Structures are given as structure tokens and as C-alpha cells.
Amino acid sequence: MSAAVRLIVGLGNPGAEYAQTRHNAGAEFVAAVADRYGSPLRSEKKFQGATGRISLGGADVRLLVPETYYNGAGAAVQPMLQFYRIETSALLVVHDELDLDIGVARLKRGGGHGGNNGLRDIIRALGGDAEFGRLRLGVGHPGHKDRVTGFLLSRAPQAERRALEDAIDEGLRVLPDLVEGQWERATTALHTRSRAPQKGVD
Fold it and tell me: What is this structure's pTM?
């Protein structure tokens, strides 16, 4: 059994202009958790983010969507971990992933930031400690690095939106296992059922 999840952080950018953009997939996931378990997210200045609290399987789990912009997420995550005395190993960061097809969700523990500036800033804020969990939500890749920024900050077509929503649902399905610390079980279930959608006409 690995560390049980006690803080779920969803990466994204604040403001209506960024709503439902690919880069806000992580924030959408946390909003979906808050909605499913009846805990509205509320802006909390001391944590520089929108926060919530749920009870899942008898465990107390905190939710956070940083309002610092994506690349400054560490300034929200570190104070919340410290205030609630949550170990880094009990942190789950949810983020969009260029290297996964749209609709695919994957779990990972530890490792580097892989070029993701939100993860980079969180690792920096935690003094280099990268031993936290990640839920990676595939958004696909535009095909060329020069197009990445515009791609991430734009809204996906409807068919891709549906696929992303499916990936979020898959993440929600394994969340109880993660809160129990059953990482292997959650990873196996997610990797078995989460699949890239077949190409088709929208």
C-alpha cells in the first residue's frame, strides 16, 4: 500500500477566458470531485486558490485549484500542505498531458516534471521533493512544439471534449482506491479501462 491521498490539486488558469481550455483539465477534474461529493469550491486567500473538503471512505480529503496561474501553482500547494500537515507523498496533482492521447488517463508516482511548468513550480516550492502522485489527463499533441502554447490555451472540439470528460470520469472512478492508498489497484483499473477514442466523425 502506498501513501493515501489527502490533498488533490487540479492545475489550470483562473478566469473565464481559460475555462474549458485544454490546460485546465486538472482544474476541471477537481471541480468534478467537488461536485460529486457535494463540497463547493471557495476562494481562500491564504492558500491562493479555490479550496474544498470532502469525506471519502471515512477519510478527510482536501481539494485545491490554485488561482496563481498554472506556472505558479507551487505558491498555493506548499502552504496548504504545510497548514494541514499533509505529507508530500499524500499529494495528488491532476494535470493535462500532451504525451497522452485525448481521452486517456494515467497515474504516476514521483519522477520529474517532464517539461510541465506547473509540476516544475510545485517541485521547486517543495524543495525539490517530487515524490507525489500525478493523474495525467491526455489532451493530445498539436504536432509541433511551436504550436503547443496556443493549443493548450484553446478549447478542444466537441468530440475531444467528450473524450476528456470520459477520462475525468475514469479518474473519479478510481479515486476511492487512491484515498485508501491502493495505488496498484487504481493504476491497474485505470490503465485497463482508459483508452484513446477511435477516430470518427463528430
Answer: 0.92
